[in-house]
Design a protein that fits this description.
Layout (H helix, E strand, L loop, with lengths): L28 H12 L7 H15 L4 E6 L10 H22 L3 E6 L12 E4 L2 E4 L19 H22 L19 H24 L4 H5 L4 E5 L3 H6 L1 E5 L3 H5 L18 E5 L4 E4 L9 H7 L5 E5 L5 H11 L8 E5 L6 H13 L6 E4 L6 E3 L5 E3 L1 H17 L6 E5 L34 H16 L1
Parallel strand pairs: 1-2, 1-14, 2-5, 5-8, 8-9, 9-10, 10-11, 11-14
Antiparallel strand pairs: 3-4, 6-7, 12-13
The structure holds phosphoenolpyruvate and manganese (II) ion.
């Protein structure tokens, strides 16, 4: 399966012939078809031009010239589509990227787990609430967190599209209005950070940067765009393939200018006038999509869908991934050997990384593939606190990141990025960090619907720690 010529033809729905994991079964298939047909006719949420730009930037990461910061909620809720939550998320990602930029002296590629991170794979399809077995919460695009409304509702797919559109629209609006302009304070002020040492270190970076910018402004060296805005890309786990297919759009290969203008031909026959062999297919629901650890079977539906889209794609890699299987996955997903086409998002756990990562790196180094290696220090480090809250310790997260950096260095590879579950709000879901949250603090502001997220301060803490490890 390592060569594209050995594979059957790909179409946006060829995944349907493959076994699928974590599928959602609707009891009203006609309504589902109607909703999907409507989404198929909706405008794309991102353009091929933007996706191409991200692909080029991830190539830089894979080649060691840039660093990837990917972060956001575990399960995005429709309620998070409000100005404050979006601004806070954007702000924490921008501030972290500034710290990383300063420490690493490299461009930072920012990808938010946002504007579509709704669907969740679950370890069990059912749970027991008040002695009754009900379907598990599968994400806002499937059912409700409310135990009384767990039946999968196809209308939620349209709602997901509309909430993604509103979120992405607000992010674009903020950025074009200068939210990320280093000359303006809103996004760069530390707001409610209480820890004095973080405040001090961060303020030093901002002061030095604004000083340099002031100097460059005086000598006329700053082009407006270089410091007035940034790229921010969207991403989610592409779990619900019916939805992803509805937003998969052909772009004529022959006319790259058409792709650059972000135009496309609708994907659904009979309006599809483009012969498939003359098209590239883009997933236009997000710039970057990834396959979860539970759905990455080589002969499964998700890998089949992912191999055909032009977007850069991620694959979660955990302890159950065999090294030979990893190489085969790269063969299927990156047949053209494009640096940065695949991001391997490794998530073993602080106590397991030393056992599994070296074999994975060595197996990949023996091939011609050049993926981005990205460390997800969250998903292998989830524990249950005595109070019953799902949590993660800051120390375990840092330990997995620092081990990842050094294992890569020892083997002649390089950690290219981090993938974090975080929020810009002051939640109490993970323990530790400079504010030293303990298990006892968890109930005070525990809000997540799924996995525990780093709060605003803990996220900045992580950025400083990573910057220091790279500086050392
Ligand atoms: C996630 O990223 O929220 C997730 C479910 O991760 P994984 O697929 O690595 O378990
Ligand atoms: Mn998660």
């Amino acid at each position: 399966m390592s060569d594209i010529s050995e594979q059957a033809a790909w179409t946006p729905d060829s995944w349907k012939a493959k076994p699928i994991k974590q599928d959602v079964v609707y009891d009203n298939p006609e309504e589902l078809s109607t909703v999907l047909a409507r989404i198929t006719n909706m405008p794309p949420l991102v353009s091929a031009t933007e996706v191409d730009r991200l692909r080029a930037q991830l190539k830089d990461v894979a080649e060691g010239h840039a660093f990837l910061l990917q972060g956001g909620d575990c399960a995005e809720s429709f309620d998070y589509c409000n100005p404050t939550a979006i601004e806070d998320k954007l702000k924490v990602l921008l501030q972290m990227s500034l710290v990383l930029l300063w420490g690493l002296r490299q461009p930072i590629v920012r990808i938010a787990r946002m504007a579509g991170q709704y669907a969740k794979p679950r370890s069990s399809p059912f749970e027991t609430v008040d002695g009754k077995q009900i379907m598990s919460y599968r994400g806002d695009n499937v059912n409700s967190i409310d135990p009384a409304a767990r039946r999968p509702d196809p209308q939620r797919l349209m709602s997901a599209y509309l909430h993604s559109a509103a979120t992405v629209n607000y992010v674009r609006m903020l950025l074009s209005a200068g939210f990320a302009d280093l000359h303006r304070p809103e996004a760069w002020d530390l707001g409610h950070v209480r820890n004095p040492s973080i405040r001090r270190e961060y303020q030093t970076i901002v002061n030095r940067l604004t000083d340099s910018l002031g100097f460059m402004d005086v000598i006329g060296a700053t082009g407006q765009t270089a410091v007035s805005t940034v790229d921010l890309y969207t991403s989610h786990e592409a779990l619900l393939l019916d939805y992803e297919q509805a937003l998969t759009r052909p772009v004529a290969k022959a006319s790259q200018t058409q792709a650059r203008r972000g135009t496309y031909e609708p994907a659904t026959p009979p309006r599809n006038r483009l012969a498939p062999e003359l098209c590239d297919f883009y997933n236009m629901s997000a710039h970057f999509i990834w396959i979860g650890d539970r759905t990455r079977q080589l002969d499964g539906a998700h890998v089949e869908y992912f191999r055909g889209v032009r977007n850069p794609v991620g694959v979660k890699v955990g302890p159950t991934m065999d090294a030979a299987e990893l190489v085969r996955a790269l063969g299927i997903l990156d047949p053209l050997l494009e640096p940065g086409r695949v991001t391997l998002i490794t998530r073993y756990g602080a106590d397991k990384i030393a056992k599994y990562l070296p074999a994975h790196i060595e197996a990949v180094l023996a091939t011609k593939h050049q993926p981005v290696w990205c460390c997800d220090p969250c998903h292998g480090n989830t524990t249950t606190a005595p109070s019953g809250h799902k949590t993660r310790s800051f120390d375990a997260i840092i330990s997995e990141i620092t081990d990842s950096i050094s294992i890569h260095q020892q083997l002649g590879s390089r950690l290219g990025g981090v993938h974090l579950e975080l929020t810009g709000e002051h939640v109490t879901e993970c323990t530790g960090g400079s504010m030293e949250l303990s298990h006892l603090d968890l109930p005070s502001n525990y809000q997540t619907f799924c996995d525990p997220r780093l709060n605003y301060e803990q996220s900045l803490d992580i950025a400083f720690k990573i910057a220091k490890v790279f500086e050392a």
